[in-house]
Design a protein that fits this description.
The complex is a heterodimer of chains A (268) and B (285). Chain A has 268 residues and is mainly alpha-helical. In chain A, 76% of the residues lie in helices and 0% in strands. Chain A has helices at residues 5-32, 50-57, 59-92, 98-110, 113-128, 134-160, 163-170, 175-204, 207-212, 220-227, 234-258. Chain A starts with a helix and ends in a 10-residue tail after the last helix. Chain B is globular, with a radius of gyration of 24 Å. Classes of the chains: A mainly alpha (268), B mainly alpha (285). Chain B: Residues 78-276 form the ABC transmembrane type-1 domain. Chain B: The chain crosses the membrane at residues 21-47, 82-102, 114-134, 154-179, 200-221, 255-275.
């Protein structure tokens, strides 16, 4: 590059500053969860683990955690199956309407969450006559999680080509054996990465969940939203927020290490 | 020949059948359930609720749309939402460009991978937690006030700051990908021909990465248009389109009107997508 040293350092400063701003709010939440001062002004006044203990005994939080886990695991399982099927269909075949199908897969996440949320809410309640509950939230989460599994598997399929599978068939293996012994092992880490991302997405989702989870039920983000404006709950809110940061960024970090190919496109 | 082998042999000879089986479940789920739900929502926008019973009346009318256009409140909120979306997009583009430029053009391949992960990972940290953390930081005795001696407090400025923060990675990543594809030789050629850095930026780099910036703006725009939680947390008394939708489906129990208002961000997004199609931005997503 022919750019001057000065330009380079200015840009570097911009990058460092930008990254600092990206991380400061997360650090503030983590620090506040062990801040002994209940008003959480800055700077923190002392260290305590009391809020963590209190959160661990808070029944509402624990119930919300269980709901979050149930919804996340079930939605991830559905998304893995559907996302993998869609990825094989779109990557290995040419057919009429292919572009529309790939648009359809990203639509649930490309449209504003509130649109997806009320569309599903309306469909469940007024069209299908299903009462909102954990099941409806799982269906909604699976709908927008399909795309992350799909993207991971498509990227892997594109990279691996079809040679090894053809070789396997030439050597006399049938389709099922080839899938079991050749295709699936090569896809495994992509599926794991996609599954981790889908779980993280489901674990964090709030808008669609608000409209599709039954009354009286809470996931962790919904618990936070419900308790955000109650001053006496602030310490526990801080702990739950800190847990959410850790629980959702660790799988994403792992997923990116697992599959070099998810690094390009945000949530899509 | 075992059953499994004969089944797989049969399927191997019928690629269309295999395709059909692969597509059936995802298409049933997304095509029927999800598209069906969207279509139903759009239809609901033309109905209304009975003021006494609160039940949805399935009579076709354009009343909801008339209210939406005639009522000053909704016009103000639409304009405010659009203004916030534009401000967030511009701020994000200005902050993201230098960051992406350094990542793509100066960082070593190893550092690039680390930096992409560093930008991506917080993207997935809970939206709500990040918005909440800005509420803490912007509060009277929070970090911002402590650092700068003043805080914008809760209001439009806080909303723009928080949303810009939330969507920043969505802008960095497409611009980074676009700059990564921009050949260094073009920048060098401009330098050889006597172009100063600013001129090179304006005449070479910017035009070639414009589609990537537009790709990023699709996210910042769409996500802002649908938001209602951030403005509830840090926006003071201000409302956005999402709040109108939310309040109508919850407190007012007027699903048809909520559906009508929800068409506004969708229409704005469709117009925006149609407008930017020619820039090639959609291939940069």
């Amino acid at each position: 590059m022919m750019l001057s040293k000065k330009t380079k350092y200015v840009l570097l400063a911009g990058l460092v500053l930008g990254l600092a701003v990206i991380y400061v709010p997360l650090v503030v939440v983590l620090l506040n969860s062990v801040n002994s001062d209940t008003t959480f002004g800055w700077p923190p006044s002392g260290f305590t683990l009391e809020w963590w203990g209190r959160a661990a005994q808070n029944e509402g939080v624990l119930r919300a955690l269980v709901t979050s886990l149930e919804a996340g695991l079930a939605a991830t399982a559905i998304a893995l199956v559907l996302g993998m099927m869609a990825a094989f269909a779109l990557q290995r075949y040419r057919f009429f309407g292919k572009d529309s199908v790939s648009l359809l897969i990203i639509l649930p996440i490309a449209l504003p969450g509130i649109v997806t949320g009320i569309a599903l809410n309306n469909a469940f309640r007024t069209i299908l006559g299903v009462d909102l509950g954990l099941f409806t939230a799982i269906v909604a989460h699976a709908t927008f999680c399909i795309v992350v599994v799909f993207n991971n598997v498509v990227a892997r399929l594109r990279r691996m080509g079809g040679n090894l599978e053809e070789a396997s068939m030439d050597l006399g293996a049938d389709g099922i054996t080839t899938f079991r012994l050749v295709t699936f092992p090569m896809l495994r880490s992509a599926l794991l990465a996609g599954g981790l991302l889908a779980f993280a997405l489901s674990f964090d989702e709030i808008i669609v969940t608000t409209f599709t989870l039954g009354a009286g039920m809470q996931t962790l983000p919904i618990w936070i939203l419900d308790n955000l404006f109650r001053p006496n709950q602030a310490p526990v809110v801080n702990v739950v927020a800190a847990v959410l940061i850790v629980v959702s960024t660790v799988p994403v970090y792992l997923a990116q290490r697992l599959s070099g190919d998810t690094a390009s496109g945000g949530r899509l | 020949m075992s059953i499994a082998a004969s089944v797989s042999g049969f399927l191997y000879r019928k690629p269309r059948l295999r395709l059909g089986m692969l597509l059936s479940a995802p298409l049933l789920w997304l095509g029927l359930a999800y598209l069906g739900a969207l279509a139903a929502l759009f239809v609901t926008a033309f109905w209304h609720t009975d003021t006494f019973t609160g039940q949805v009346v399935t009579e076709w009318s354009l009343d909801n749309f008339a209210t939406l256009f005639r009522d000053e409140v909704y016009r103000t909120i639409t304009v405010r939402t659009l203004g916030i979306a534009v401000a967030v997009t511009v701020i994000d583009a200005v902050i993201a460009f230098p960051m992406a430029f350094y990542m793509a053009k100066f960082a070593s391949p190893r550092a690039q991978r680390v930096l992409v992960i560093a930008v991506m990972t917080p993207l997935w940290a809970s939206y709500l937690v990040k918005a909440y953390s800005w509420r803490v930081m912007l509060s009277g005795n929070g970090l911002v006030g402590w650092l700068f001696g003043a805080t914008p407090g809760y209001g439009l400025a806080a909303t723009v700051i928080t949303l810009s923060y939330l969507w920043l990675p969505y802008m960095i990543l497409p611009i980074y990908a676009g700059l990564d594809r921009l050949p260094n030789s073009l920048v060098e050629a401009s330098g050889d021909l006597g172009g100063r850095p600013w001129r090179t930026f304006r005449s070479v780099v910017l035009p070639l990465t414009f589609p990537a910036i537009v790709a990023g703006s699709i996210f910042t725009f769409s996500l802002t248009l649908g938001d209602y939680i951030t403005v509830k947390i840090v926006g003071g008394a201000n409302q956005m389109l999402g709040n109108v939708v939310y309040d109508n489906i919850g407190a007012a129990n007027n699903l048809p009107f909520a559906a009508t208002v929800a068409t506004v961000p969708v229409v704005i997004m469709l117009v925006y997508l149609a407008a930017v199609r020619r820039t090639g931005a959609l291939d940069n997503l």
